[in-house]
């Protein structure tokens, strides 16, 4: 099972690398807008952090319940939202689970102290 999971992760990473190399029809880079946002003065804005509100939340390879589960996040964990698409959010979790897609309804904005 571990070999299958590793193979799936490799395929996801390869697919992501291939899509970054592609250009949109308008000539823009599809990965550029999702990674960082330039603030006035040339500073880079931090991407938003959100908190998992479900007891357990699957991280998937694609934004669909049919997507391969890459990992699981637990309630209260913080994730960085990279992209939003049709109610799904592509998140990064600082090594807890691989980067992937989660159902957006199970995340809430992080409250600053």
What does this structure look like?
This protein is α+β, with helices and mostly antiparallel strands. It has one domain: SH3 Domains (SH3 type barrels, Roll), CATH 2.30.30. 21% of the residues lie in helices and 35% in strands. The chain has helices at residues 2-21, 32-35, and strands at residues 37-38, 44-45, 49-52, 56-60, 69-74, 78-85, 88-92, 100-103, 107-109. The strands form three sheets. The chain has a five-stranded antiparallel β-sheet, with no helix packed on it. A two-stranded antiparallel ribbon has the order 1-2. The longest helix is centred in the N-terminal third of the chain and has 20 residues, at 2-21. The N and C termini lie far apart (41 Å).
In short:
With 113 residues, this protein is an alpha+beta fold. Helix content is 21%, strand content 35%.
